[in-house]
């Protein structure tokens, strides 16, 4: 059984509110805190208490929320996260296409299509070629009160034959060896540091993962992307996978990571570098996000 209780210190106004989650799992009580500038410890939390002190996010640093005249002020909010940026280019193709540029171009197109369709509000974690620490990306989305988080990447593989898109949800245990290797690459390359993936880290991730409704909603979003991407782009099977990605670890925000294709594959690199062929990917993602957010229960 998983029961989750939200509480805070009363500082509920504005985007910088702190969050605390008390998880009751099979009789054991795990206290987990997530704070923007403060932490709360629960009695009984024991050694499972996680406290992460982060600097206060200033309103000026929060991403801009884009709306169109077809979007209500209280419409669901999706935060799209173009992977990498700045000094971190991510993967590259042999002819010089860079993951950070493709991710930003795709994210921008998805936002524009969503605004055109109406019904959801959209923010990007970065709108320019700048570095953003991995941990900060979901925090920005949480601070905005987002309903969904979609991180966009493009993959690399040791062999040029690997081709097609994948969607990932968070899991402490990777669905397969490829997924595990990819999570390691993404976790290291985008943070610039070697993040631990040992037992302690997994225990902490598991405490966060117990937010069952978040995990279920993440799977729902991945299923929607599965449905809309079929026939719209080459896919790497199995399409849906899971691994321990830092950027997907929000306990409260349904999150997926979309790999648009392999830049080490010449066909994928060409397809994702050309705005005309890339548009099909952006359209499928936009349809999937819209379908998911407009049919899910309010969260
Ligand atoms: Zn990446």
UniProtKB/TrEMBL annotation:
This is N-acetylmuramoyl-L-alanine amidase. GO terms for cellular component: outer membrane-bounded periplasmic space. GO terms for molecular function: N-acetylmuramoyl-L-alanine amidase activity. Its EC number is 3.5.1.28. The keyword Ribonucleoprotein does not apply. The chain crosses the membrane at residues 20-42. Keywords: Hydrolase, Membrane, Transmembrane, Transmembrane helix. It comes from the Bacteria. InterPro entries: MurNAc-LAA_cat (IPR002508), N-acetylmuramoyl_amidase_3 (IPR050695). It holds the Pfam family Amidase_3. The keyword DNA damage does not apply. Residues 138-290 form the MurNAc-LAA domain. It catalyses: Hydrolyzes the link between N-acetylmuramoyl residues and L-amino acid residues in certain cell-wall glycopeptides. GO terms for biological process: peptidoglycan catabolic process.
